[in-house]
């Protein structure tokens, strides 16, 4: 039974309640991890662009499309990141009229340190707040979450 239409009403309600609670808890965990990572005064849009560029250089047009915003709006975000020394642009070898934006070495180091801080906080919180059995349960839950997001 993979579809809510095939579940009895009580099961469907329980699955929906779990879905709602999971969404809320994951949002809270994300905010807590963001606090630990020291994102400073970056906006959510700027953080999203940095995450995308962490996967490799991209044009403003490609970034805007990926984020579902207009190129002009994203251009302002990239400009602010450039001013902060977090991204740098070079001419696109495939189309010299466009600029390929990439993370600067300083930004890559900042991201590395930020990730390490978040992972350290999570490691410590898991060790202090969870029993060994609960940590094992959490590991199994991570596997289940991976299945939820698999294509």
Short synopsis of the structure:
With 151 residues, the chain is mainly alpha-helical.
Structural key phrases:
151 residues; Arc Repressor Mutant, subunit A; 6 helices; 10% strand
- Mean pLDDT over all positions: 91
Q: Share of helix among residues?
A: 55-70%
Structurally, the number of domains stands at 2
* CATH architecture call of the largest domain: Orthogonal Bundle
What does this protein look like?
With 151 residues, the protein is mostly helical. The protein folds into two domains: 1-36; 37-149, Winged helix-like DNA-binding domain superfamily/Winged helix DNA-binding domain (Arc Repressor Mutant, subunit A). Helices cover 68% and strands 10% of the residues. The protein has helices spanning 9-36, 44-54, 60-67, 71-83, 105-129, 132-149; strands at 87-92, 95-103. A two-stranded antiparallel ribbon has the order 1-2. The longest helix is centred in the N-terminal third of the chain and has 28 residues, at 9-36. The two termini are 19 Å apart.
How would the blueprint of this fold be written?
Blueprint: H1 9-36, H2 44-54, H3 60-67, H4 71-83, E1 87-92, E2 95-103, H5 105-129, H6 132-149
Antiparallel strand pairs: 1-2
Helix pairs in contact: 1-5, 3-4
